[in-house]
Amino acid sequence: MKFKTSFTNLFLKLFLLVSFSVVSQDYLVEKVPNRYRLSWETVSMSKEPDLGFVGIGFDLFSRTHQSTERYFGITSYSTMQGIRPGLITLGVSSGLRTKLFESGLFLDFGGFVGGGGGGAADDGGGLIVRPHLFVEKRLGNLGLHLGVSRIDFPTGNISGNQLHFGLSLQGDNYFKTKEIASSAIEIFAPRIRSFRFGLVGTRYFQLQKGSDSDKATKPLGTAGLVGIQIEKRLDKYWHGIFKTNGAFQGGIDGYMSILAGMGGRYALVNEGLSLKTNLLFGPSGGGAIKSGGGAIAQAEVGFSLRLKNNYDLQLMTGKTWSPWGDFTTNHFELSLGKSFELLAPTKLPKGVTHFKVPASDYSENHLSFATFNRTYFSSSKALDKSGRPYLTSFQLLGFEVQKHLNDRFRLHGGTVWAYQGDYGAYAEGLLGATYSIPFYNHWEFVTKAVFGAAGGGNINLGSGLLFQYAIGVERILSPKSNVYVHFGKVNPLEGNFTPYSLDFGFKFQLHQLLKK
Prior knowledge:
mainly beta; Porin; 3 domains; eight-stranded antiparallel beta barrel; 26 strands
């Protein structure tokens, strides 16, 4: 009897210990500083008006030692002044930021490499490089910077050394990590930050076509665009918004825009139906659209209808116009989106880079970011829009964000930009899905299907809509990174550009925490 009692007590103690350990499991979170950047610089041109470039970028930081940080990010440099609307580039940026004094001054040295072009500019194959050196003054989370830079299209005829100035907004990302930090503090009920990610279709009405030198406009009627938008809730009424899209219908293939701005929101029926307004501004061009130097503005108003599981449907209408060009159109927009409540503490004790939160309160949002080189191979005897045979091969730089729905299936959006060959203005915006099958010790076999809008560089894609299919293998290098090779085929809905593709890339795994 005594043995039975002792055994029962021991069993209860073990049960309570295991139960407590399960309930009290924590997620370890790493704080990663970030920076949003906006800059302006003017490149002197000898035979035409100077080109004004706006820079829009996002960086993630990691500390090298106490006063120096290195960063890696994505940046776009695009014209908004001159006669080259549609000269838009995208690439990777990297550098070092060092604290100079305790007064908030920082020295930033880095560079940018990317692809792109457009606007009938002499951009060669599309490769662009841009080293920079600037001093930044921090005023809280706001930064003001002034420095020197050089924009150079090495295979084209655009280059210059110039002053540049800009501003930045400092912030933080928070990622789940598997690093061991038993001494990390535990935070209960931290702040949650709401983001919305949406797919958006846009219809332009009463559209005009023609270049800056073509005074005779040709009415097009309507054109269709497809893209993505990201909203960040600032408070109950206000949000920041970023939107990019490209044409796939209406005879303006090659047209695209990159827009950023602010918006307002007012709940009409218990947050189920809301009135929304947006005001955006940014570079655009291509497709022979007369957008002056490339700058356009967009004002819109509409409604947001909340659906189940944080999905929503937005209907917006408004006006898009070029402040310094002849481009003007009315537009209608339909967007399907999903909102996420991300972990984002307001303040952490000084020097704290890791902390714990209860696992019972959060779920994982597994994302991955990939950067890759794509080679297009064409054996076709078809001719491009200028009447020349397609090159047997040329190179493009690509980026992709994937949302992991489970261990095998993921949705993604991406873009590729030409940087070598004769197609500097060519770019694609793509949406699709990937299915993976593990087959041997950290190796996966993948199948991939995407569709999207593309154009530029005199490549013949008809209206701009295309489909791509690929197979490949991926190798898991670590819990945070993969390397992969994909082989695929391009099939446009119209046009004669049907190359094979070979992608080689690196993928970085990101695990965010969402409020349950």
